[in-house]
Structures are given as structure tokens and as C-alpha cells.
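User: Batch of two.

Assistant: Item 1 of 2:
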Amino acid sequence: MADVLGHPQESEAYTTSGVNVAVTTQVKELIRSLSNSTLGPQVIHGPGLFGGAYSLGKFDNPVLVSSADNVGTKLKVAALAGRYDTVGQDVVNQNINDILTMGARPIFFLDYIAMESAIPSQIEAIMQGIVSACNVAGCALIGGETAELPGVYQSGAFDLVGFVIGTVEKHALLNGSRIKEGDVLLGLPSSGLHTNGYSLVRKVFHIDEAPTILGQTFSELGTTLGDTLLEPHRCYYRDIEPALPLIIGMAHITGGGIEGNVPRILPDGLAAEVQMASWEIPPIFKLIQTEGRIPEEEMYQVFNMGIGMVVVSSPDNVSELLRILPDARPIGRMVAQSGINRLKFV
């Protein structure tokens, strides 16, 4: 229904059921305002219509690459800490990293936020993180969805999902097929846990039962546990993009760690040999292992252990890659597969 001026009338019954149309409208206007800074000339229509429209521009033989992912139970840590901006960055960066492994440049992003009832200040903080990450990567926030779902989510709980589309010329698509024996693995440091392993971390530190621990400073970390756990997932796009012509494979180290992700890009008959002593494990992982009495093998299966992206290169290009990526380091090499294992730590 609408009043005589055409303005939608607030439904009292709908509001008492847990959905506030006025607040939802306010949130939509906020999101539209924030997203404007990410819209470049190739965006024909951004947020506001029923769909976004984007012009691909000039490509010879373009391939679209897509990814969808959520932030996982890191969201619960954010809610308990009352801090929401970093998870907005997380949802963008983790998706961009996924399509980057195929050589794709991110062109546009869509978000999905679902919660019991819309809280404008909370959504604004999330969106500020999303917009910031999109601007850094040169990616348009072209649309999304904010859903109030009373009865589905508990008060204070929310979900955050992202969808990214990228492009790459077909001849430049990375799929691991060019990797061969003797090629070198380069590891790029993570910024922390990124977005994986938080269910175990919450258990180790009893965060759900005693969230005040998030404000505790640990000497090993040099800051609070909360600040360390909510450090944003690093985006590798701007660093790696100039080096793409020299790269023949990439693995984003997410759930499953190095062991679970590097084999995903390997051709048949090859295995990855990883030198465990080739990088220093960040303090947060050592603290988790000590506090939780977690076996080393399980740590490497759950966490990235300080390596967030693995790049594969021919030996001839290693020195140039290290010049372009100064924080990268050689961490292993490709060897002939022996037995069923596709990766071994040495």
C-alpha cells in the first residue's frame, strides 16, 4: 500500500513480526551511497535496479571467472568483539584471491548480508570494509542483497557472503597444466589466520563462553587477541598482477592449509615438496598450538601457518618474481609423484 503521495506505508504487522521496512529502506540508501565510489565507467547500472550491468570492454577472447564464499565463523568473533569493518574486507579479498589463482582480474562484486533484523550501524561498518577492499582492488560493487530473516538467525548473528566476477584472456588462463617437474614454489606471507580455522580457535580460547579474552593482550602477539584474530584477509591481487606473465600456477591457501590446496593445481604425476623450515611461523599459530595442545600435523591441515598464497614458477623466472614480489620466498619445488601423496613436507 501507499499513501496519497505514493510513499510506502509501514506495515505494523510486518514490523512486529521482525521486519522493519523503514530501516531496510534506510540501509539500501546507505549501501547505494557507499558503493558509488567503486563504480567506474564500465558500470552501466549499479545498485538500485533489479540487477547490475557491466560492459566488458575490449577483449580478444575473454573468459569469465567466478567465485562465491563466506567469511565463516570469523563472523562470530567479529560479533562478540563488536567490530564489523574487517570482515567486510575479508569477504572481498578471499573471493578476489580465488579468481586470481586463475589469472583473472576482478571486475565486479556482489555481497549478501543476512541477519535477524537490520542494524544500520552494523551494516554500515560491514559495507565500509567491502567498499574499501573493492576500491583497493579496482573492483566495482555492482549490487547485492541485505536480508532480514527473523526466526532463521538469532539476535546478533549474521552471515556475510560474497560473489566476484573476473576476466582473463583465454590464452592467459592459469589452470596448472603448464607446471612441470623442477618448477619452484614461492610462498607469500599471510596476514594471519585469514578466514579459516576460527571454529577451532574459538574452542581453544573459550571465546564463546568468555568473549572478554578478545580484549586481552598477549605478549607473544604484541596486541590483543581480538585485533590479531580480526586482522583482514590479505588481498594479493595488486601485488601479483604485474607478475602474472611469469607465473604458471597459483594456490590460495585457505581451509585445508598448504596440504589441502596446493595439490588442487597439480597435473597428474607431479607432487609438491615443501620445505617446512623455509619460512617463520607467525606467533599467533604458535600460541594456538600451545594453548590448544594441537599436534603440528593438524595445525598444517587447518591453518595457512603464515603462507597465504603459493605461486609456481619456472626456475628461470624466480629471480624476477622475487624482485616484483619482495616478500615472497622459495618454499619448495615440484617433483615426480611417488605413491598416492601429492604433497610432502621435508
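Item 2 of 2:
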Amino acid sequence: MLDDRKAAILQAVVQEFIETAQPVGSNRVARQRGLNVSPATVRNEMSVLEREGYLTQPHTSAGRIPTDKGYRFFVDQLTEVGALTSVKRQQVKAFFAHAHGELEQMLHDTSRLLSSLTDYAAVVVGPQHEAAFVRSVHLVDLGGRAAMAVLVFANGTVEKHTIELEPDDGSERVAAAGAHLNAHLVDRTRAAATNIPASGDRKLDRLVGAVAKAVAAGEAGDGEQVFVGGASRMAAAFDAVDTVRSVLATLEQQYVIVSLLREVLDGALSVSIGAELGVAPLSECSLVVAPYAIEGEPAGTIGVLGPTRMNYPDAMAAVAVVSRRLGTRLSEG
């Protein structure tokens, strides 16, 4: 633990470096309101903080910059998530007031919203379809020996399958098959499609079976979808081109991102800094992530990825607000 003066000096260095991206000198820190210490005292304390691993000095004559340990101390001292500015709150309110359409589009748009709020890359991981309950099944006769099966899941996913009809499958049989599917799939996961009981009508059961087969087959292709917004903003966040290139390449590897969000997420707003991420190309990055829930059940995750020099209070506020509003919007359907 640091004493109050060292903690205040470290906080001042972190805040100044976040704002300026320049090494912070003792004179600059000494002028901070509320410190009431001389530059010489600040220099001595900064030397101690450097020896203890909270700060580092990039050049002999330069000021100090925070290390991952310094950022971690700074983040851990944030006792509560701050608030968005009034302009950003209005931006979030307007977005969710007009957000509509299928789940995939909403998640894609949400990633862009989060990126615009923070100026970092935003990642939204969608729900796993196979774990979601079926809310409704619609079987529509399209004419020309084709029908469309439309499944609406509780997580907001809409799934469509084209079903081939037999010549004598009329609209009444299509309607009856839809009713039978609703009776045995609604409020269950798609896995129930493999165990739909027979109706006793051979032709009806054949049609129901065709739909059930298509629904069950859809499970094999299900997985978590990843939506990345504002990846190009990362270019402005780093000085080294090689760092930008490695970060962008990692963002393209969706399985890495999904795995990363799973590992750092502990059920609440979470911050991982630098080496804590455990991914070498992201060693100069920090990740702020939070879950979103649909109807009270954990559904997916959202987060922002930026440099370790990110504005943590703003990023945490944005992720907290957007995750909560996204969950509410999806629960409303």
C-alpha cells in the first residue's frame, strides 16, 4: 500500500500522462491543486515510486510515465464508476430510442456507438444461439412448394429456414405444422427440435420433421458472433506502427477476442491492463469489459480495447452504461 502523498502523486502522474501522452515532470506534479508539496519532495517520491515499480523513466532527463502496476493502482482506487457527460448520455439515449431490427445489426451498431463514445476499438460478443429459448415459431406458406420457418429466440435472434413442401402440402397443413412446432418448441432451446412427439398424422409429421431437422442443423453452425467497431481508431492511439499492426491483426482473430473476454470477465465491470491480458500482441493495451443480460440471464459481453494510457474513468462509464442499456433493449424485444 502507498501512503496518501505517494498515492496522490501517482494519481497526478497517471492523469497527466493520460491527457498529454508526455512524460510527467516533478514541477508539473507539484503544481497540481491539493498536493501542497515542493518539486524536490515530488522528485524524491517519484524516485521511490519508480523503485517500487509504479513509474518508469523512459530517458534519463525525462519525466516519469506509469507502468502497468501504476495504472492498476490508479484503476483500483476508482471506488465507483463515473458518469458520462451530458452530451454522451444524450447520444446513448437517442441510439437506444431508435435501435431496432435483427439482433446482429443491433450488436454491430452498438459496437460503433461504444467506439464513438470512447475513441477506442469496441467489441461486442453476441449470445450463443443454442443456449437461448425459443420465443415463437412461424411457418409461412410461400407458394411454389416452399415454406419459410421463422424462429424468434428470447435473446433477440431471428432465424429463418426455407422448407421444401410436397405437392399436397396445402396452407392448412402448413398452419397445423406451425401450431405443432409452437406447442413443443416455445420456451425450450433448439435442442428440443430433435424430440418433437408425433402427431399421428404421417404427412403432418413429415413436414414437422423437415422443419425440426433444419432447426437442429442450425445448432452446428451456431457460436458467438463478434462485432468490432472503430478498429481504425486504434491507429491514432499508438505511436508505433508495428504495435498498431499487431493489435489490428489480433482483433481480426475472433476466437482470441471471445476467449479473452471470457477469461477476464468475472460477472461485473472488469479492467485488464497490459500483461494481465495474457496476449503478447496486446501487451500495450487495456481492456474494459462488462456483461449484458437478457431478461435477467447473462447473454454476452461488450468491451473497449485501447492503449494502457486510456482514459479509464470515461471508458468504464461508457461500458457500464451501454451494457446496461443494451440488455434492457434486448429484453424488451
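Residues 312-332 form the longest helix (21 residues).
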